[in-house]
Amino acid sequence: MGDRKYAIIGTGALGGFYGAKLQHAGLDVHFLLKSDYEQVRQHGLIIESKDGDFTLPQVNAYNDADKMPQCDVVIVALKTIQNYLLPQLLPPVIKNNGVVLVLQNGLDIELEIAQIVSNVNIIGGLCFLCSNKVGQGHIRHLDYGHISLGEYSHNYEAEGITNRMQQIANDFQNAGIAIELTEDLLLARWQKLVWNIPYNGLSVVLNARTDELMANSYTRQLVEQLMDEVAAGAKSTGRIIADSFIQKMLDYTVKMKPYRTSMKIDYDEQRPLEVEAIIGNSLRKAQAAGVFLPQINCLYNQLKFLDSRNQR
Amino acid sequence: MGDRKYAIIGTGALGGFYGAKLQHAGLDVHFLLKSDYEQVRQHGLIIESKDGDFTLPQVNAYNDADKMPQCDVVIVALKTIQNYLLPQLLPPVIKNNGVVLVLQNGLDIELEIAQIVSNVNIIGGLCFLCSNKVGQGHIRHLDYGHISLGEYSHNYEAEGITNRMQQIANDFQNAGIAIELTEDLLLARWQKLVWNIPYNGLSVVLNARTDELMANSYTRQLVEQLMDEVAAGAKSTGRIIADSFIQKMLDYTVKMKPYRTSMKIDYDEQRPLEVEAIIGNSLRKAQAAGVFLPQINCLYNQLKFLDSRNQR
């Protein structure tokens, strides 16, 4: 692909951060914006980061996908609740045989992308990033930032490590972003859900931080049972998550600083929750394989109720 | 038993109401009180009721079970969270071969009573009563009031309708309290849980009234799934709850006026919740028969967390 041209679909706390890092490292990056368009077009992006602050006084800013150049790599960094926009946004921006890099949580997102654009390659990326948008075109990176990349293929057959993945990984690593390559994207997605489903879900339903959930023996047990159900979901699609992985996630969370999950932040800000991508799709994928995940189902219905009331 | 002497253990919104009705009808009733003792000893009880207001200027009030006479029928009308007091309160008050009438929600309460007092008969009563204590010795009866009575025997074998039940039913009916006699106490208790577990539980976890839970399709479905799990619990103990019964409860709740459940009222008043009697015992009884109720388990752990945080 030579010198790759990047597009960022969704220049928020995540897309803005990674896009700015790539441009800062010298790559050609094109940003699609909505509310921050005028500000960023005139004044660029400001990044405060624990790894070093920087500003980009000038960026390629767009408020219309049709005006963007066709790019080699299109990074989808919207919240999944906005994915209904992708049939308009993706086709004009992606080069034939280009890469759509999906930096979103949840399951089966790549399937949706594959239905929108054909003759492209799809790579999924799981971001372990703690960042907030603190103002228009102004992003604060608090912690972490590494990405786990995996190539998508039909039906989530494990694809191994492809050249495409390595090329993109090089670009990111040159920009100071840690990358892990995974041979099995679906397994990586289920693994991330082991943490995301219990903590995101319960933090909203019980109005609780991670430390509170772990300090109470009942929710501590419920978290573990929900993790076991995620593993049962993974197993229904042929992916094995070991008990030791679950134990590692529990231990890791106990040691973490008290943490308000991203879904809880969305809820507190009265933004729509990513319930479908993270929980609904997991339930449906297991159900399609004949496996019902009852406690996750309980959490799902509770969140759908709270999300709907929160949007009034 | 001839002219029966009644004791009321726990003179609150429920015990105070039924006890006052019995005394008002001419029966000999003895009331155990705690916080309202001085007020009630001096000024008696005031009952405001949709069936007609009345006052009892003089009642037999006690603040010590050891000072009470031995009674033919001892009505246990405490909240179940105070049942740890029964080993002190019950033995002095109950006549040999008398009746302990347990007017409490939940499962396996009679088992606990049987461990405390022997050579007594135990009758369980399920109250469909809407009443509040609005001041010291002052009770407001808002709606309903009928009681379903069933005789307890070892291991909850169905006992049929006994003479004892009919005698007590007569006393209540003479006092204007509607009584239904049930041949199978355990079935009646499971049936009441079909309503109590989903609505009490979800009303607290989701901060919602019954009408809100029924208006949202997700919680409407969750309520039904929880009811199905109660039926599975009942079945594990040999009791059959038909789908038509569940449908009747759903229809009935849709038609009800918007209702804040008793557990939600306890929660809002920062009183301890009856989670163990209503939900914990149901889970354990099914588990003892080899049946896990996963969505009820999820609700249970959530409620234990919220209850504990609420008591701080």
Notes on the protein architecture:
- Two copies of one chain form a homodimer.
- By secondary structure, the first copy, chain A, is of the alpha/beta class.
- The first copy, chain A, has two domains: 5-183, NAD(P)-binding Rossmann-like Domain (Rossmann fold, 3-Layer(aba) Sandwich), CATH 3.40.50.720; 187-310, N-(1-d-carboxylethyl)-l-norvaline Dehydrogenase, domain 2, CATH 1.10.1040.
- Helices cover 45% and strands 22% of the residues of chain A.
- In chain A, strands 1, 2, 3, 4, 5, 6, 7, 8, 9 and 10 form a ten-stranded mixed beta sheet that branches.
- In chain A, helix 6 crosses helix 10, helix 6 (185-205) packs across helix 12 and helix 11 (275-288) runs antiparallel to helix 12 (294-310).
- The longest helix of chain A has 21 residues, at 185-205.
- The first copy, chain A, is globular.
- The interface between A and B is medium-sized, with 25 and 25 residues.
Looking at CATH, which topology of the largest domain in chain A would you report?
Rossmann fold
Mean pLDDT of chain A: 96
Counting H and I runs of at least 4 residues, what is the number of helices of chain A? 12
Strand content of chain A: 15-25%
In quaternary terms, these chains amount to homodimer
CATH superfamily of the largest domain in chain A: NAD(P)-binding Rossmann-like Domain
Helix content of chain A: 40-55%
Alpha carbon gap, first and last residue of chain A: 47 Å
Gyration radius of chain A, to the nearest Å? 19 Å
The CATH class designation of the largest domain in chain A is Alpha Beta
Order of helices and strands of chain A: EHEHEEEEHEHEEHEHHHHHHH
- Structural class call of chain A reads alpha/beta
> Biggest sheet of chain A: strands, sense, closure?
10 strands, mixed
- Spans where pLDDT lies below 50 across 5 or more residues of chain A: none
Number of strands of chain A: 10
CATH architecture tag of the largest domain in chain A: 3-Layer(aba) Sandwich
What count of domains describes the coordinates of chain A?
Answer: 2
